[in-house]
Amino acid sequence: MLHQSRRDILPVSLPGNCDNDDTNDMAPLMLGINININIRPESSRSDWRKVGLGVVLALVGLASVGGITYGVWYYRREAMMMDPTLDTALSSDPLPYDRVPALWGDDFECLGWRATAGCDPGGERTPQYDKTCDTAIGLGDAGFCEVRNRTSLQVYRVMATTCRGVIGLKTFTCNMAEEFTDFSKQAATYVHDPAPQFSGVRRGIVFSVFKKALPGVFAIIKVLRSYGCTLPIEIFYRADELHAQSNVLVQALLQSDPNVVLREITDPHATKFRTKPYAVYHASFDQVLLLDCDNVPLRDPTYLFDSPAFATHSAIFWPDLWHPSHTIFSVQAQNLLWQYVDMPFWDVFEQESGQ
Predict the structure, then answer these.
(1) Does one domain contain both 90 and 167?
(2) Which residue ranges does UniProt annotate as crossing the membrane (predicted)?
(3) Same structural domain, 106 and 183
(4) Based on the structure, what is the number of domains in the chain?
(5) Tens digit of pLDDT for each residue in 205-248?
(6) Contact 177, 188 (CB under 8 A)
């Protein structure tokens, strides 16, 4: 049996007749209950809808304001970073960095990253953005590393960079400054282990291959022979990338062409792109034509060795697609590369590595 006290229905007052009939007395109660269920929840849902709509509109408004603010900030930042006048920031007089006179030895001490304004390493100092020696410096950071000689107490500014000194997710820290400044001095006096000495053939073609490149190399060699090219060919490979003894294409090539020789790359540091200079250096030829697996000559390339350009310069390079104003490797005036190798920026097309 469901019971509701009189006190429970007092808040509900509805018009009704004054008959003393029990049924009539219950009518207001039943009607009140029905109104409580059918009307009040509808009103509550309507209020919640309004609140929800208000919240959504507020969030959309905040997102719009945030998007516009970020867009303006990003545009200004990009405009500042791409300012062409910054291309001379690292070659201006005076330079925004110092040349360390000698190898560091045990005297190196890092003091920290010193931030500057305007994407210019020679710009106004912004100490609030300074960083410690082990904090990553990346795209958008401008300034220089401050280091000191422990013995002489001489302070140097090195690794000066604009906001475009490094690209993408690449970063560096000021703790790298010792090796960074030492490199150009070590490179100037470096003498590599001599390549194996061979006698006989002076000229030849070299490929650096991996398994997926083999079909292209196989086809190129067949094309070269169809032109009447008789130059000997050496194919350099890494044993961890290509099992030459069991590879069908390799064995077919060796059996069909006695002027093709396999050369294994044994230097653990010669990987990926580095296999190309390794192949050129270790080839048994005095004069080398390096071809990529996707570089198909349109004629017998033997004539290149007798061309005036080669006779004059002893080397010929072909331009690649990329240029400082359109480069995927960031080979442009503001790159840290030029300080690293201690060379001036060279505004030319990048060279194709494999022809």
Answers:
(1) yes
(2) 51-75
(3) yes
(4) 2
(5) 999 999 999 999 999 999 999 999 999 999 999 999 998 888 99
(6) no
> pTM above the 0.70 mark?
no
Q: Are residues 136 and 110 in the same domain?
A: yes
Return the SS3 of 205: strand
Q: Which two tokens stand for residue 79?
A: 């405009």
Tokens 């690794």, residue located:
159
Distance of CA 282 to the CA centre of its chain: 31
**276, 174: one domain:** no
Q: Are residues 146 and 174 in the same domain?
A: yes
Indicate if the alpha-carbon torsion angle 197, 202, 208, 212 is positive or negative: negative
Those residues whose C-beta lies under 8 Å from the C-beta of residue 236, and which sit 6 or more positions away, are 206, 207, 208, 209, 263, 264, 265, 275, 278, 279, 282
Please answer whether residues 141 and 169 qualify as being in contact, where contact means their C-beta atoms are separated by less than 8 angstroms. no
Do 327 and 275 reside in the same domain of the chain?
no
Strand partners of residue 116: 125
Q: What is the pLDDT of residues 241-298, one digit of tens each?
A: 998 888 999 999 999 999 999 999 999 999 998 999 999 999 999 899 999 988 899 9
Non-local CB neighbours of 293 within 8 Å, separated by 6+ positions? 207, 209, 213, 214, 216, 217, 220, 354
Task: Report the C-alpha gap between 347 and 351 in whole angstroms.
Answer: 12
Identity at 216, one-letter amino acid code? G
Q: What beta strand segments (E) does 125-200 contain?
A: 143-149, 155-161
Evaluate whether 234 touches 240 at the Cβ level (below 8 Å): no
| Secondary structure (3-state) at 264 | strand
260 strand-pairing partners = 233
Domain coverage including residue 302: 203-316
DSSP 263: E
DSSP reduced 3-state for 8: helix
User: In whole angstroms, what is the distance from residue 49 CA to residue 84 CA?
Assistant: 54
Q: Are residues 142 and 233 located together in one domain of the fold?
A: no
